[in-house]
Amino acid sequence: MRKSKTSKIRTRIEYLRAVIETECSATACRESGKCRHEGEKQAARHALVRLLEKLKGAAEDDRDEYAEAWAKIYARGYDEYGNTYSMGSNYRSGQSMKDRAAGIRADIKMARAAGKAPLTQEGPGLMPQALETYRFDPIGEAPAQIKFRVKIGRGYGSIEINIDNIPQEWGWVAGEVTEYEGKTHTRWYRSQALKDLEAELKSIGEAYNADFGSNLSTDCFAQAFYVFVESDDPATLERRAEYEQRHKKSRA
C-alpha cells in the first residue's frame, strides 16, 4: 500500500473515531432525549472496520497502534491445513438475508449522503466529523448520477450489489483488441476509480458475511452467503438496449 494512501486511511480512522466517541451536543437531540445521530455513529463503526481491514497488512508490518485496534474489532485467521475462517464485524447468527441486504443498503446510503451534503441541518451535532469521515470514501466521491441496487440473489445464497448509470468517461477505459483473424474491436476496462468503488462495496457486503471453514484445495466453501458487485460496460448496455428495442418492435 502506498504511503500516501495509507496516510489518507489513517486520517479517516481518526475522524471515524471522533464520530464514534464524541457525545452529541445538538440541542434538538438533548431536548427529545433521543439522539438522531445514532445512524451516523453506526455507519462510522462499520466504516472503521472496513478501513482497518485495508490497513491490516501495513499495521502488521509496522507493528503500530492500529494492529491492536484491528485485533480488537475484527478477527480473521487460518490453520496449518489450509482452512480459512472469518467473521464479518456485522455478521449475526440467525440474521435473515433480508436484514443483511437492508444493512448493506443503509451503509451505502449513509456513505452516499455524507459524501454529498450535511446529514443534519440543526445544530453542530456530529456533522463536521461525519463529513470528514467520507472525504476519501469511494462511495461518497462517486459521481452523483450513479445509482446502487442491493438485492438478494436467486436461492437466497447471495447478495448482489449493482452499480447503474456509470458515466462512461469516469468508469471505463476503451482499448482496441485485435483478434487472430485480424479483426479489431473495442474492449472496455474498468477505471481505477470504478475498481475502488467496487472494492468498497464488496467490503461493505462482506462485513455481514462469515466463513465457517472453507478449503480451496478441496473446493469446500462454507460461507454464509456470497457477495457479488456487478456493473455493465458500455458494450453490454448497448447490446441490451438493442435487444429491448427489437423485443418492443416484435410486440407492437
Q: Report the end-to-end length measured between terminal Cα atoms.
A: 56 Å
Total strands: 8
> Helix segment count?
10
What's the order of the H and E elements? Answer: HHHHEEHHHEEHEEHEEH
Q: Categorize the overall geometry.
A: globular
**What radius of gyration results from the CA coordinates?**
21 Å
Mean pLDDT: 77
Report the major sheet: 3 strands, antiparallel
Query: Structural class, please?
Result: alpha+beta
Helix content: 40-55%
Low-confidence residue ranges: 70-76, 117-134
Q: In what range is the share of β-strand residues? A: 15-25%
Report a brief summary of the structure.
It is built from 10 helices and 8 strands. It is α+β, with helices and mostly antiparallel strands and 252 residues long.
Structural notes for this entry:
The chain is an alpha+beta fold and 252 residues long. It is 50% helix and 18% strand. The chain is built from 10 helices and 8 strands. The chain has helices at 3-21, 27-32, 38-62, 65-73, 97-116, 127-133, 138-141, 168-171, 192-206, 234-251, and strands spanning 76-78, 84-87, 147-152, 158-164, 172-178, 184-190, 210-214, 226-231. The strands form 3 sheets. Strands 1-2-7 form a 3-stranded antiparallel beta sheet, with no helix packed on it. A 3-stranded mixed beta sheet has the order 3-4-8, with helices on one face. A hairpin with a 5-residue loop joins strand 1 (76-78) and strand 2. Helix 1 (3-21) runs antiparallel to helix 3, helix 3 (38-62) packs across helix 4 (65-73) and helix 3 (38-62) packs across helix 5 (97-116). The longest helix is centred in the first third of the chain and has 25 residues, at 38-62. The chain is globular and about 70 Å long. The chain starts with a helix and ends with a helix. Mean pLDDT is 77; it is low at 70-76 and 117-134.
